[in-house]
Write a structure and sequence with these properties.
Elements lengths: L9 E2 L9 H5 L10 H17 L7 E7 L2 H11 L7 E5 L2 H12 L4 E5 L8 H10 L5 E5 L1 E2 L4 E2 L2 H10 L3 E5 L11 H4 L3 E5 L10 E7 H6 L11 H10 L10 H17 L1 H22 L15 E5 L7 H10 L2 E2 L1 E2 L7 E5 L6 H20 L1
Parallel strand pairs: 1-12, 3-4, 3-5, 5-8, 8-9
Antiparallel strand pairs: 2-10, 6-7, 9-10, 11-14, 13-14
Helix pairs in contact: 2-10, 5-6, 10-11, 11-13
The chain binds pyridoxal-5'-phosphate (PLP).
Pyridoxal-5'-phosphate (PLP) binds next to helix 3.
């Protein structure tokens, strides 16, 4: 018997994720992009994001950008470095690999330091690289590697990047607002995230929080028109909240509501505590059922967990279908050399969801043993 409407299910994926009804309801209204009420909504979102990043409006600014998270990463990497600059990418997952792809595509000079995908980049190795490579102007890394669930130590890397006087860029797509990130205190110059991750909005735009001085210095460097970060910023500033091209109005309204709900929950501290508790219970419960996690506990982030298939001949598809029938959708793995699947625990989920998911997995394991 179905316990759930087959057309609705909760997402155990790291974005899009399950949003509240009140967030989705904001999308029932059509809004005018150049209307003052709408522009002030955009400005409130920009200012609110600075608060979440723990930075001041004098020193930092927010640039919203149409598109999914990758559009934000591509906007930054194709807009900031000049023709003579060089970016160092710290690679330990698919999303840092994607940064290299973007830099290749735009013919931006770069180098990469590779680390095993279940280990965090070593700050001392970054310091040594920067000492030997004076041509490096920017360092770019991912905070929460959604590929594996690993949480990188951005603070330690940032410290050595700042000590070496370089620009620090962080893709905090799946961690921003799900983990406390004191952007200025950590020495981050540019941080990127999107609407449909830990702030729990719906997809449609991403955002870049950047030091004003870094943006100012990048004028004229953009390699595309639509992803030009500097122009996008200048349009918001000149016309107080006017988007440069068509604005994702419904998504922005939903996001403004999601920010309100984040505050009502108790801010990032409370949300982070909820995610950590859900993640810890899920990981512990799954391990008890015999599912082994890919990331060691000390590097496991609170967003998503990668599990190995429990046995040879295990069918992800069957498990996916059974869970979906019960109202939850899970995520396939993203490792190329090992058979894994992933369970995200961000979004509008509670401990009762996690307990239910564990019951469902227990049933699946029991049926397999009996078969
Ligand atoms: C979600 C995500 C992105 C962006 O992916 P899109 O599919 O473009 O939204 C980038 N980096 C990380 C770490 C992510 O989790």
């Amino acid at each position: 018997m179905l316990t759930q409407d087959p057309n609705t299910y909760k997402l155990l994926t790291p974005g899009p994720l399950t949003t509240t009804l009140t967030v989705r309801e904001q999308m029932l209204v059509d809004r005018c992009t150049w209307d003052d009420d709408y522009k002030s909504m955009t400005e409130a979102v920009r200012a609110g994001l600075l608060k979440l990043a723990q930075v001041s409006a004098d020193e930092y600014t927010t640039v919203l950008m149409q598109g999914s998270g990758t559009f934000g990463v591509e906007s930054v990497l194709s807009s900031l470095p000049s023709a003579t600059d060089s970016v160092l990418v710290l690679v330990n997952g698919a999303y840092s690999e994607r940064m290299c792809k973007i830099l290749d595509r735009h013919r931006v000079n770069y180098a990469r330091l590779d680390f095993p995908w279940n280990e965090i980049p070593d700050a001392a190795a970054v310091a040594a690289f920067l000492k030997e490579h004076p041509e490096t102007t920017h360092v770019s890394m991912v905070h929460s590697e959604t590929t594996t669930g690993l949480l990188n130590d951005v603070e330690a890397v940032s410290r050595v990047v700042k000590a070496a006087g370089r620009i620090m860029i962080v893709d905090a797509m799946s961690s921003f607002a799900g983990v406390e990130i004191p952007v200025k205190a950590w020495g981050i110059d540019v941080i990127i995230s999107s609407a449909n991750k830990c702030i729990q909005g719906v997809p449609g735009f991403c955002f870049v929080i950047a030091k004003r001085s870094v943006l100012e210095a990048s004028r004229g460097n953009a390699r595309t028109l639509s992803l030009d970060l500097y122009d996008q910023w200048k349009t918001f500033e000149a016309d107080r909240g006017k988007w440069r091209f068509t604005s994702p109005t419904h998504t922005v309204a939903a996001f403004a509501q999601a920010m309100k709900e984040l505050e009502e929950e108790g801010g990032i501290a409370a949300r982070s505590a909820r995610y950590r508790a859900l993640n810890a219970r899920l990981r512990e419960g799954m391990e008890r059922l015999g599912f082994r996690a890919y990331i060691a506990p000390d590097h496991q982030g609170p967003i998503i967990t990668t599990f190995f298939y429990p046995s040879e001949g295990f069918s992800f598809r069957d498990m996916y279908d059974e869970l979906k029938r019960e109202g939850y959708v899970i995520y396939p793995g993203k490792l190329t050399d090992q058979e894994t699947f992933r369970l995200g625990n961000i979004g509008d989920l509670s401990m009762s969801d996690v307990e239910r998911i564990l019951e469902l997995f227990e049933r699946i394991v029991r049926c397999r043993r009996a078969a």
